[in-house]
Specification:
This protein is α/β, with parallel strands linked by helices. About 45% of the residues lie in helices and about 15% in strands. Among the domains are: about 1-100, no CATH class; about 225-430, no CATH class. The protein has twelve helices and 13 strands. Helix 4 (about 135-160) packs antiparallel against helix 5 (about 165-190), helix 4 (about 135-160) packs across helix 6 (about 195-225) and helix 9 (about 325-340) runs antiparallel to helix 10.
Amino acid sequence: MFADLGHFSQLSIKVVFTFVVYPSLILAYMGQAAYLSKHHINETGYRIGFYVSVPEKIRWPVLVIAILAAVVGSQSIITGTFSIIKQCSAWGCFPKIKIIHTSSKIHGQIYIPQINWTLMLLCLAVTIGFRDTKRMGNASGLAVITVMLVTTCLMSLVIVLCWHKSVLLAVFFLFFFGSIEALYFSASLMKFLEGAWVPIALALIFSVIMYVWHYGTLKKYEFDVQNKVSINWLLALGPTLGIVRVRGIGLIHTELVSGIPAIFSHFVTNLLAFHQVVVFLCIKSVPVPHVSPGERFLVGRVGPKGYRLYRCIARYGYRDIHKDDIEFEKDLACSIAEFIRSERPEHITRMENDEKMTVIGTSSSNSQGVSICADGGDDHEDSSEIVSAKSPEKPRKRVRFVVPESPRIDNDAREELRELMEARESGMAFILGHSYVRAKKGSNLMKRIVINYGYDFLRRNSREPTYALNIPHASTLEVGMVYLV
């Protein structure tokens, strides 16, 4: 009944439940009901339990089966919890945690270490705290009947919204099954002080965590959207952005796939220098095992060509391995260079704010595209090279872009490639935004508690993005910014 669809197909669950699980449940409950109807009057006051109703000859085999069933049930609960937590995290309703995909073919087979340890600690706490199967049974009974009641309510919505049936049918379904389950639910509530309070307390705790995280994340995203830098503000600064452009490439990590993040304006208005090439890098995880190298990057331009501002969206599957910083820098630089070389209207995908994005593969996936070679390489004799003016005061190892002869590159694109190569040779700086979310002055007490304490605590103890763990610390620049929401 609690099998995860990530491990089994819908047909297998239907067949097993119809021909094995449901008949077994009916027979088991009929047997227990028959025993209770015959032995409900017990003068000795001996408590009638499950194993009392089992004949002595098969009591130990039933105990073994019960232990195996508990193992299967616990595994189902664990996989179901993993699936729910992953979906809540994807919807921004749960803090970011480490999710390990154990299968390259089935998306639903995952493992979450933190949740696994949390479930173990909760099981030990409940067992040690109660030390009584009756209290544990009361807690389990309320949890099960609550799940059934909630499922019935949601099923009535499915009948109307998904199956497009009449509202009367949904009301009849809800009234028929809901009334029966409401009786059991009220009976379970009578055992509230005898252990049934545990699932309600846990549900309240996790609901508060989910609400606080979702509320804080929503307010932070609204601040990012409302404070995006407009293209008019960028055009008013001019090609130099109103500051000194130093050599090198600046990679600004952002979660926005369009527009200029507020962290960029915060940076340029407080510092007097910035890199000659700026790349707004957005790393996205897509629900497929692998993204082919030929579709890894989406590259576009922000503003006019003279500004040297680019946007790059790097897409990774849940089984893709992030490359080290050297390979990633090489692929990123080659992708931008290939975008500059082959910028054509027919290869462009329009994004928001009239931005244009082009699908560009990595250097290893496109043998006909731009590649990087160090000095002394002779693997591309039939290709043209773009080199920078030799700098005698810097005798370090230099790199060059090797581009195909056809199609021919105009002078503007050649100059842009040369400048990109010079910036690549000078190195890349990874700029990460570190946001401090605070409630605005005049906010009510509840909002200040949720934002300043609850969300801040969850954010500081949640997992950082995967790409942040692979960035070399020597090339990282973290920019702090206060978000007043």
